[in-house]
Amino acid sequence: MYKEEYQECKSFTGKFHQYFSGNEHHADCIQLWKDYENCLLWTTKSNERARIELEKREVDIVKSIAERRTKLWKYRTEPPKMWNFPGWNLNQQKQNATETKLDNN
Q1: Which H helix or E strand runs over 34?
Q2: Cα(15)–Cα(51) distance, rounded to whole angstroms?
Q3: Distance (Å, rounded) from C-alpha 58 to C-alpha 2?
Q4: How many domains does the chain have?
Q5: Is residue 46 part of a domain?
Q6: For residue 34, which of 56, 66, 62 has the smallest C-alpha distance?
Q7: Cα-flanking dihedrals φ and ψ of residue 7, to 5°?
Q8: Is residue 90 part of a domain?
Q9: Which of 28, 34, 25 is CA-nearest to residue 2?
Q10: Would you say residue 83 lies in a domain?
Q11: How far, CA to CA in Å, does 41 sit from each of 2, 6, 32, 51?
Q12: Average pLDDT over residues 50-73
């Protein structure tokens, strides 16, 4: 898996995607190569240092994904009022339209 990520990062299509998505996370691909080397050390020689570094790296990746997600969405602590009423949003739209008409007159 790590080798495939590195190869994708170094490829033309990978660089193209990084350029247009603004993804500077893998701009140089060096960290992906280090991950691949650590994976080899861990799987072939049971190197504990390599395993620990891989685990830290995976935790960092998960944290960075979570940070990016929280910037996009505001999580609710409870559902909206009347969430189970079939036309709750429709009624709100009608009320807003009526208020707008009254304000314009």
Answers
A1: helix 30-45
A2: 28
A3: 11
A4: 1
A5: yes
A6: 56
A7: -65, -40
A8: no
A9: 34
A10: no
A11: 13, 16, 14, 8
A12: 83
The band of 63, judged by pLDDT with boundaries at 50, 70 and 90, is: confident
Three-point CA angle 64, 68, 72, nearest 5°: 165
Domain of residue 25 covers 2-72
Average pLDDT of the segment spanning 4-26:
80
* The residue to which tokens 């009254």 are assigned: 102
Does 40 reside within a domain?
A: yes
Q: With a cut of 80, say whether residue 102 has pLDDT above it.
A: no
Q: What is the pLDDT of residue 21?
A: 74
Number of Cβ within 10 Å of residue 5's Cβ equals 17
Stretch 62-87: mean pLDDT = 72
8 A C-beta contact, residue 24 and residue 30:
no
Q: How far apart are the C-alpha atoms of 67 and 64, rounded to whole Å?
A: 5
- The structure's pTM equals 0.58
